[in-house]
Please model this.
Amino acid sequence: MSTSIHRTVIVGGVAAGMSAATRLRRLDEAMDIVVLERGDHVSFANCGLPYHVGGVIEDRDALLLQTPASLAARFNIDVRTGHEVVAVDRERRVVTVRDRTSGQTTEEAYDALVLATGAAPMRPPIPGVELTYALRDLADMDAILARLNDPQAPSTAIIIGGGFIGLELAENLTHRGLAVTVVELAEHVLPPLDLEMAALVQRRLVESGVRVVTGVAATAVDSDTVTLSNGDSLPADLVIMAAGVVPESALARAAGLDLSERGGIVVDDLQRTSDPSIYAVGDVAVKRDAHSGAGVLVPLAQTANRHGRLVADVITGRTTSAKPVLGSAIVGVFGLTVAATGWNEKRARAEGREIRVIHSHPADHAGYYPGAEVMQLKLVVDAETDLILGAQGVGGSGVDKRIDVIATAIRGGLTASDLADLELTYAPQFGSAKDPVNMLGMIADNMATGVTRTIQWHEIEAEVERGSVLLDVRTRGEYADGTIPTAVNIPVDELRDRFDEIPAGRIVVTCAAGVRGHTATRIIRQLGHDDVVNLDGGYKTFVPAVELRGCCDLLGTMREAASTSS
Ligand code: FAD
Model:
């Protein structure tokens, strides 16, 4: 144990700060530990706040996990709420603390200082921003509840930002009977997902009564409307700003610590800032990306807790170092489970990686056992190394398990093809003998070895333009119910007999989910027609994506291209 650190002062008493404090005590009974928290509460469950707004978590006190008294009793930690650190004197190793009740300032000396000040809701400088609410802590939650319980209760709400917190609020406010609109600047909600995955979420939001407006910014707010960058004006009795968070690093900036371009405190693998006596953890600190090694901001509770624990290890002299982050995250949206880990396709392409992409639509457990629910999974793979870059899942039960298994595989350095050989538990009510994760591995192996060749939904248009023939191998009934414009139909079971009907030139096979398409491409290739590819993820991936992007454009172009080439 390091002997030079006898007194640790921690600024911020929630996920990262309190994890650091309690671990520190478990490792060092003699350490003087002071936690200074500006707000009225420490160790509260911010992740539960939207659900108390919606009434799902009925008891407000359930969100309060610890109190200064309980922390003093069990851990002998000096926790002071209502105390804001307003300055850091690095020379003298003291912080200036303002008691928010009395207004008095005092100084606290430290041997080690841990900045766990978190991230604050972003407030874009638009007219009327002061009329908007945000949700970070219990005080914010109470303010929203007070507005909702007002005699003039709001009936319409606009949520600016369609990220995780925005969508949780959309669901909870809808449950309370408000007409909710989500305004999102990006092309789709949940920007950590790729478009075709987010399309499923957007569909669920709309089916659940939420209006979703994308590709526009809110430009002004007044007492009952929000004006958008496209000129529209939407009615809003309640406006909540959920447009992301920014690291709360003003203290660090004033103290001259190194910050990243986006304002995060730069730390090394031991969570040390540019001043070796000062550490930073949680949302305020920059993390190292698992694939590129670049600095990233990942404002998630799990990382904050892990790094809080880690900094206590460092301070007490234990050998350890921070692991790079994947940003694994999950959210529930009106009964849908939406989870992601690592890079999405957009990010991987932006980084210039050569990638393979796989979509699948497996059931969470054996189809013959009652209650099976279909999910959509997506795997992004580095084409050179076969290493897994990321995964996304949208569906019902079992999505969390698959994404967590893949996150573990990435962390363990497994390749995508290795997923085929993972020995996962199976009985019909829990999974499949070939688990959806195994199936992704088998597809990855087929792709890596050239057994199968695929194209993505967003490449279809270009294929039609270059004159490729779309071959729908589903049944006549499925085909009649709807197909990709210009596709001809030969059901997979008739392919061998009708092989002479397959035109020369490039063939793009489509089916419902990509499975029959794979079999069809194998038949066609083995019968001697080599220029054939399968539409990855099939019609089920294609349709929601083109619906979201504006099917008229894409499908219209395809029809035109087909008529000019014929
Ligand atoms: P914070 O929890 O923000 O705590 C920092 C504390 O520092 C604050 O209480 C602040 O008052 C205090 N502070 C700041 N400056 C000073 C100062 N100068 N002096 C004294 N005190 C100061 N993450 C997930 O992984 N899953 C989820 O489901 C999830 N849901 C969320 C839902 C909501 C509504 C919110 C707001 C966040 C959610 N998060 C979720 C994110 C998660 O809560 C954060 O990643 C996590 O709380 C970060 O912990 P932290 O300790 O770094 O910062």
